[in-house]
Amino acid sequence: MVETFVPPQRSIYASDPLQTRGRAHEEAPSATRTCFQRDRDRIIHSSAFRRLKQKTQVFVAHEGDFYRTRLTHSLEVAQIARSVARTLGLDEDLAEALALSHDIGHPPFGHAGEDELDACMQEYNGFDHNAQTLRVVTKLEKRYPTFDGLNLSWETLEGLVKHNGPVLTDGKSIDTLPQAFLDYPQLENLELHTFAGPEAQVAALADDIAYNNHDIDDGIAAGLFTVDEICEVPLVGDVFKGVRKEYAFLDEKLIVAEAVRRLIGIWVDDLVKESRRRLKKHNPQSAEDIRNLDEPVIAFSKRLDDKQRVLRAFLYERMYKHFKVNRMRSQARRILKELFELFNREPNTLPPPWRQDAEQTSGDRRARIVCDYIAGMTDNYAIEEHRRLFNLDSMI
């Protein structure tokens, strides 16, 4: 059978690289790439992106090489985001850039690592991985001679900051935001009270699709729950039962793979259908119109969203609260807590150039330097740093 899908033409409400609001530091345009393609390439070549290969979400990187890392997760998100953006006539390159970069502010050890760093930084205005992503791409990456960061376009920075919706809502003031946001001098220029552009909205929900389904895959592979148990979850269970019925003698690994493939298709189809309904309803004439609406235009239907909440509740109980995961989380938190306390108390134990910067300051600024150093670690590097500093055998 010949595949017949024909991508639609570019929509009038797609973000237009020719109409970009530019970069913080002016640069000559590329002769071969749009500004959004350059952003994507800069993200891929960044140190923070490469380190995602040894950062995980639920498991620890050394637990097994078949679990998703944040790198493989980001690639899955990018694939879904490009497909949805293409179908809706949006800018695929901007959607891909946002999908690839959405996790680069995450510390080691997933959510456990973020929770612990936030606890360590409570006296210093906390830690937030979304804010840290902005800090990475505007300050911490050092790759250019005339500026810090990656000098990404306005549209990419806006999408990174607002991919989950407006940052300032319900009368919230800017000074209540995480410190890593406040340290960016042009933060208010990102129009924090509006929604992000359509490509950022696509990337955010592509993230949901990817982690919903790869958590099913990884949870079964890790033995945290069984196919029979996931079959009790509405919608998801129907798909698994359908695959089992159609392929009665198929190996369980292939049953899981086929079911997850079908589930991703269901999520994507629903997202496209509901988004088209909302776009027709609002009839935006530009990406700016989409930003100024009172609801996102990229969304799941209420029916699927309800099913999704049931799935997340199942995964929370059977996977994220499993005693094996709790043990990993406990160990991870202790590692980061002890590293933070040592580096903050004894900055001369930091490697250069972190040591020089930390020794020249104190209080909030020193703590933020220590936090930046730890947040940039991979799972394996954090384990090794802790071993070198706290295991006496490593001195022999």
From TrEMBL:
SMART domains: HDc. Keywords: Hydrolase. GO terms for molecular function: dGTPase activity. One of its GO terms (biological process) is dGTP catabolic process. Residues 13-32 are annotated as: Disordered. It holds the Pfam family HD_assoc. Residues 70-212 form the HD domain. Transmembrane segments: none annotated. InterPro entries: dGTPase, dGTPase-like, dNTPase_2, HD/PDEase_dom, HD_domain, HDIG_dom, PHydrolase_assoc_dom. Belongs to the dGTPase family. Type 2 subfamily. This is Deoxyguanosinetriphosphate triphosphohydrolase-like protein.
